[in-house]
Amino acid sequence: MEKSYNPKSIEKKWYDVWQKKGYFSPEPDSSKKPFTILMPPPNVTGVLHMGHVLNNTLQDILIRYKRMDGFNALWVPGTDHAGIATQNMVEKDLAKEGKTRFDLGREKLIERIWKWKEDKGGIILEQLKQLGCSCDWSRLRFTMDEGLSEAVKEVFIRLYEKGLIYKGKRIINWCPRCTTALANDEVEHEEEASKLYEVYYPLADGSGKVTIATTRPETMMADVAIAVNPNDERYKDLIGREVVLPIVHKKIPIIGDEYVDMSFGTGCLKITPAHDPNDFEIGQKHNLDFVSIIDEHGKMTAEAGKEFDGLTREEAREKVIAMLKDEGVFCSEKDYPHTVGKCYRCNTIIEPFLSDQWFVSMEPLAKPAIEKVKNGEIDFQPSRWTKVYLHWMENVRDWCISRQIWWGHRIPAYYCEDCGKMVVAKSVPSECSACGCKKLTQDEDVLDTWFSSALWPFSTLGWPDDSEDLQYYLPTSTLITAPEIIYLWVARMIMTTLEFKNVVAFDTVLLHGIVRDELGRKMSKSLGNSPNPLDLIEQVGADALRFAIIYHTPKGEDSYYSDKILETGRNFTNKLWNATRYILQGIEQAPSKDNLQLELADKWILGRFNQVLEHVRFNYEKLRFNDVATSLLDFVWKEFCSWYLELSKERIYGENATRKNTAQYVLLEIMQGAMRMLHPIMPFISEEIFEKIRPFVGDDLEESITISAFPNVDNSLIDEAIIKGMSLIQGSITTIRNLKKQVNLSPAKEVKIYIKVAEEEQVALFEEYKQYLQSLANCFELVVAVDLQKPAQAIAGVVENVEIYLPLAGMVDLQVERDKLQKQLAKLEKEFKVISGKLSNDKFVNSAPSEIVAKEKDKYAEVKGKMDKVEGLLKGLG
What we know:
Layout: H1 7-21, E1 34-38, H2 50-68, E2 72-76, E3 78-79, H3 83-96, H4 101-104, H5 106-120, H6 123-131, E4 141-142, H7 146-161, E5 165-175, E6 180-182, E7 187-202, E8 209-214, E9 225-228, E10 242-245, E11 250-256, E12 268-271, H8 277-285, H9 313-327, E13 330-343, E14 351-360, H10 363-374, E15 379-381, H11 384-394, E16 399-400, E17 402-403, E18 413-416, E19 422-424, E20 440-442, E21 446-447, H12 449-453, H13 456-459, H14 468-473, E22 476-481, H15 486-501, E23 506-511, E24 515-517, H16 533-540, H17 542-551, E25 559-561, H18 566-584, H19 600-621, H20 625-652, H21 657-678, H22 683-693, H23 720-742, E26 751-756, H24 760-768, H25 770-777, E27 779-785, E28 794-799, E29 802-807, H26 814-839, H27 842-847, H28 850-876
Parallel strand pairs: 1-2, 3-4, 9-11, 15-23, 22-23, 24-25, 26-27
Antiparallel strand pairs: 5-6, 5-14, 7-8, 7-13, 9-12, 10-11, 14-16, 17-21, 18-19, 18-20, 26-29, 28-29
Helix pairs in contact: 1-22, 10-11, 10-15, 16-17, 17-18, 18-20, 18-22, 19-20, 19-21, 19-23, 20-21, 21-22, 23-25, 26-28
């Protein structure tokens, strides 16, 4: 083995081997239970970021664990066509050429996007391979590949024929920059400093006025009514009368509607049905006109008045306020924090826009999906997300699925050019069924990107064909994703899978947090706090990165990244490598299983291995991967390497062949078992070490750790008496080391130790394994007895029910040590006096901030403990 661990030399090597051998590509097998994971498809425009690292490492850990545990484990990868984002990216390239999509036309733009996708759309997939993701790349899917496109058409047509998809003119969320509709869930809401404006609307009969409050005076020209609450004593007598709309100077009615919040503003609400979703509902209820004055680019139209035509919303607002002031109807303005909807793609302020759009009626689909979660067939982890899911589903609104872009699944609806009849079909009809016209044109809109990804659980497995994969791998098992797409993706997959396959999409949903920097900020390019994961892999290797982020991320919680956490992973890989080099030094053949002479340390490490294995298995099953990482780091580093490996040296370098054979056998057994436990988290180094030690372990191991069985617990090897005895030996060694340190004795200094035990069995234990204290604590002589008297001029330590004495005569200059301890004690006593004075002062205790008082109390306890320790040492020195 090379002296130093070099991830670059092994990671690509092993990934190529795994792919060539087909380890990640299972086939349906009735003798095995399937376990299926669906990759949340990253955007085809994407590149690897730290959120991907966390998400895909979690998935890879689970699929590797299940593969090793005997399941027919399939991880289906894929990418999303990301309609708006991808088209925007290509249009930016066009803009550099001085062109727009309209210069190319629809067909040419689509051709260009497909070319872009082929050239650059697979970048993130190659990056996921560098991370070690064990997906079945032979089943790679794309939301616009032929099979998924067929599934999208089939779902659309079936839902349309069932009356669950419809087309209607309604208020939708519109992005003026992307010039497309957005679903409610694609709008991100931010609180911004705004203004609340109060304006007088004169009564038409000249008898007075009403005052309205609005945050959007630029929409006044589209007002068609003033609404008041019929229970509002201030205004109920005005219902049925009219006001004069300022600027436009036309009469509009005053209506009564209980929707109006009497406590907001003045209690009078201007109604603009074409530019506000709530006003739209009121407009429909009261049969009001719909006046639209803002176009798809967020600019005013001639309908607002020729003086406003072409102005932006912001420009129009300024002009309206100036005109209102000129008319004398402007009352006041005041600061008003206001929640503003913005496009999730470009951060442009959303415009409520009245237009013809396609919708899915969600309530009928939501009911069975709610029930499956309530009855426990689908388990959200952590459980707090169940309430979030249910709240959204129980208040679900119809989903706007049409988008006014060109890249995506075009809506399969066709219109007769003569009579206008609409037909929904998979392909263009040969003629109109109503008038026989042979000219039919397809709807210009495409479907929301999330529509195709909502079908992911069954479309990726071959639906609408009844494929073998579909029959075997659906329902899938565990979905691992982020909470922010519970609505956009998770809930919709549950609904569509129930609707079209009548099974749950998955039985478990693990929702992880986001990756933040060490200051708690969400990582972003604008903040410059998001490292490139490929750079980190280049620095420390994929295993170190994976281990570090998992070790520091509790289940379901946010992850806090800093370069410091990489040290955990890097140091652990180095420790594993160096331990393997030690184990393999000088070994020429597999140790004999028939020539073993197990002693305390052997039995202890085998027992602890199985205890840790039980804990690790439990936490893999519970998806508590950071607990797995913690257990394995502690066991391998603190127990196997720091204790057993060190204790083995006396036998490895000794002359007794049987004892050497035993130590080598146990070292190899523990190492190969630890690598199998660790493989899901650190696949590369565990494979490399497994390959190095496999020839010396036996012929019953698989050719690769990737397809090896996960270890099973052997309870017969767990002996509590052995573990307790070893714990006493370890504690004694640690105590002796600490006693040396207290009097500045070198750890290498050989000492004579006296041990007073409580039981005769302990005498036998220390006598039998005194070589452990000799090798790890440098004890050249050990005196052990039940009735032992404390030696003169000795310092003492206690471990469990055993007292340990280190005589110092001849070891150190006792007077020098006494003088040093006396000075140390005097300094501590002085400090203790100051602290005691503060705490006995009622004025300080009652007046100082509580955290300051608490800090002084902690210092009091700390200094008192140090004083007691020094006094004990002085007493030991006579």
